[in-house]
Amino acid sequence: MPTSTTTAHVATLRRLHDAVGSGDPELVAATIDEVAAPDLLVRTPLPLDTTGVQALKQVFTTLLRAFPDLRVTVEDVIAQGDKVVSRNTVTGTNLGEYLGRPPTGRAVRYDEIFVFRFADGRIAETWGVVDLLTQLRQLGVLPS
Length: 144
Prior knowledge:
By secondary structure, the chain is α+β, with helices and mostly antiparallel strands. The chain has a single domain (about 5-140), classed as Roll (Nuclear Transport Factor 2, Chain: A), CATH 3.10.450.50. It has four helices and five strands, in the order ααβαββββα. It has helices spanning about 5-20, 25-35, 50-65, 130-140; strands at about 35-40, 70-80, 85-95, 105-120, 120-130. A five-stranded mixed β-sheet has the order 1-5-4-3-2. β2 (about 70-80) and β3 form a beta hairpin. The radius of gyration is 15 Å and the shape is globular. The chain starts with a helix and ends in a 5-residue tail after the last helix.
């Protein structure tokens, strides 16, 4: 049975997904500042030269520039204690530069799973597995 704390954690994660769905990078950045701890630990390997909250902001800025219609559809959520697991489907159309490549105009649809650990009501740590192989194949970067 969900507790008020786990319900609050799920609501916090929903706020982040709603901000991403707005397509507004400024709203996403402001929401990250509100829902993520300043010392956020991002455990997903990223090709960035920044960490923490700034890394999370940079990921979404890059994705929204490349896929302005980016949508994260939450398929499943499991919440227990201080953790929330979210299995998502991500969709978008590549209309901007991505990974140093010009836009392809191609649509992508791929899956991801994230674990979020909360502390003091904010996201304190994340781990993610993103199906980049499918994404890159759909963009034509890798053969099918």
